[in-house]
Amino acid sequence: MSKPRHQHYIPKSYLKNFALEQDGKYFVEAKLKNEAQPKERLISIRDICVDKNIYTLPSEIDEDKYAIEKYYASEIDEVYPAIYRLLVDDSVEEITEEQRRKIILTTMSLFFRTPKFLNLNERRIDTILDHALRNHTGNEGLVKIQLNGRKLDFHAEQVEEVRNDLHVENKLNFLTQHLKDFHEFVDFKMAAGLSVITVHGEIDLITSDNPVIMHSVIKKRFDPFDPTNIIQLPLDNRHYLIIYPNTEEVLKDRVFRGDRDLYFVLTSNQQVEESSEEWILGKPETIYAHLRDQPKYFAETPENIARMDVFEEQRNDIMELSAMLDQFGLTHENTLQKIKELLNKPLHQNNFDLQKDYEELRKKGYYN
Predict the structure, then answer these.
(1) Is residue 260 in a domain?
(2) Is 34 contained in some domain?
(3) DSSP 3-state assignment of 133?
(4) Contact 254, 343 (CB under 8 A)
(5) 1 pLDDT exceeds 60?
(6) How confident is the model over 204-219, as a mean pLDDT?
(7) In this structure, is residue 63 part of a structural domain?
């Protein structure tokens, strides 16, 4: 393997599923978070979500400088295409334990390998140093502060040297700790349910340079190892992976599948943009469509307010059905009647999951 100086923290094996292929090359529509419009030209996936030497170990470390990059290349990026095909294949419902581990390993690497936490800590270091220079510089130019429990004592003229040393130390901590946390996380999420959503209609999913969305379903303070976290990841412009909280019961040998339409995609794309670091990305015209659709559907117009009332009614109906499923099970006469009742209401006629459940039950003779 050549020296990988420019290293993808979001791999090409993932990005190509949101890209246009031209003569064996892949291009995405891209918009910087702080700019109003996407770039005029499509950008090659070779040139985006790349950082110079992000995984390269310092020379003084007695290991292969490129060990981490080689690990990601062989154990994640080469494996992901097969895992992607498995996830988007609607016929696949049963999976082995090895396949489950590879699903979690390859997709969750997109969370742990990004420079998000590296950059966050670097900005924190800079903020503390700049504050110290302004407020804690003594008469002789000496600066005395504490950072992460360590006492720092330096002359103001040495601040850039101190800053550089702290940045190097921060990067080393990131490199040595994130793989450990990553593998512990994979073990942790082996007990969580998996679902792949297929979206329908004239709207597409987008992605970003920080594509994994993770948050507690009960709004607890963020912690990657919180068992109440739900994890979401767009797989391409039509498929979306959900990894459920560890608090829910799960069949470990199954990938559950569902279908969604416009408003699922609108909400998902909004979350993708909010969680991005610098870039949102997608197939040609999908970023323009996202920028057009967000104000159109989320503005506080009478039409949208009425639509939100419909969403609330849909949500209440589904919660009632879920409670009935918990109490009676799927094939109880009360549940069967409730499913039929909901499908007769106009606001549930585009509920693909409900329609699928009804058809499966009808084929098995539960509906005459």
Answers:
(1) no
(2) no
(3) helix
(4) no
(5) no
(6) 92
(7) no
Question: For the segment 147-185, what is each residue's pLDDT rounded down to a tens digit?
Answer: 777 888 888 888 888 888 888 888 877 877 888 889 999
Provide the domain count of the chain.
2
Closest CA to 110 of 20, 12, 199, 194: 12
Reading the block at residue 244, the tokens are 């459920």
Range of the domain at 346: 300-368
For 52, the 3-state DSSP assignment is: strand
Tokens at residue 252, please? Answer: 């470990």
74 within some domain: no
Cα–Cα dist 356/345, whole Å: 16
End-to-end CA distance of the chain: 63
Residue matched to tokens 């994890």: 231
pTM: 0.78
Three-state secondary structure call for residue 174: helix
81-121 pLDDT per residue, tens = 999 999 999 999 999 999 999 999 999 999 988 877 777 78
* Mean local confidence (pLDDT), 344-368: 79
Helical spans, DSSP H, in the chain: 12-15, 67-71, 80-88, 97-112, 116-135, 159-189, 262-275, 286-298, 302-328, 333-343, 352-363
Among residues 180, 210, 229, the one where a domain terminates is 180
User: What's residue 289's pLDDT?
Assistant: 95
C-alpha 181/C-alpha 171 separation (Å) is: 15
Tens digit of each residue's pLDDT (9 = 90 or more) over 312-340: 787 778 778 877 776 777 788 888 888 88
What pLDDT score was predicted for residue 216? 87
* Distance between CA atoms of residues 310 and 316, nearest Å: 10
Q: What is the DSSP string of 264-286?
A: HHHHHHHHHHHH-SSEEEESTTH
Nearest to 160 by CA among 133, 134, 124: 133
Q: Which of 180, 196, 231 is the last residue of a domain?
A: 180
Expressed in percent and rounded to 5, the helix, strand and coil fractions of the chain are 50, 20, 35
CA 280, 284, 285: angle at the middle one, nearest 5?
A: 85
